[in-house]
Design brief:
This protein is an alpha+beta fold and 168 residues long. It is built from 5 helices and 5 strands. Keywords: Iron, Metal-binding, Oxidoreductase.
Length: 168
């Protein structure tokens, strides 16, 4: 069975007719040719496919495309303008928050989404008092980013980049 889906990706409306079993990641990469989200594990374990979906971070390999007809998606490429990188992208460059770069688009989108969660006051597993607003600490950042793996092991620099990006 097929369905026609319209999504807005990085500010541009895109339409595709796909099998109803197609994931959002495959819709983005194979049908509308958006390269920023990467296919890593295809099981929701690595975070390479993370994007902002209607403002929230989502691993697109676990979402069916038909569930998100009409959605607004922002990829790492859509965070910046043509002339100016997003503060989180700038921080990843400044702090050397990547090595091979494969996970970086997912890391950047997850970091932006994670900071929005912190700002909204959502507690995490390591939040000491779930009744009060969580603070942006290295422990909070590491816990909230634990769904994004870096095979190169650039975690120390990723945390530093997120701290810098959040400060901007």
């Amino acid at each position: 069975m097929e369905a026609t889906i319209t999504i807005t990706v990085d500010g541009e409306k895109r339409t595709a007719t796909v099998d109803t079993r197609v994931t959002l990641l495959d819709l983005l990469r194979e049908h509308v040719r958006v390269a920023a989200p990467k296919k890593g594990c295809d099981h929701g374990q690595c975070g390479s496919c993370t994007v902002l979906l209607d403002g929230r971070r989502v691993t697109t390999c676990l979402a069916f495309a038909v569930q998100h007809d009409g959605a607004e998606i922002v990829t790492a490429a859509g965070l910046s303008t043509q002339d100016t990188p997003h503060p989180m992208q700038r921080a990843f460059l400044d702090r050397d928050g990547f090595q091979c770069g494969y996970c970086t688009p997912g890391q950047v989108c997850s970091a932006v989404g994670m900071l929005a969660e912190l700002e909204a006051g959502w507690p995490s597993h390591v939040t000491p008092d779930v009744g009060s607003a969580p603070e942006r600490t290295p422990a909070e950042i590491r816990e909230r980013m634990s769904g994004n793996l870096c095979r190169c092991g650039a975690y120390v620099n990723i945390v530093a980049a997120i701290e810098q990006g959040a400060a901007r």
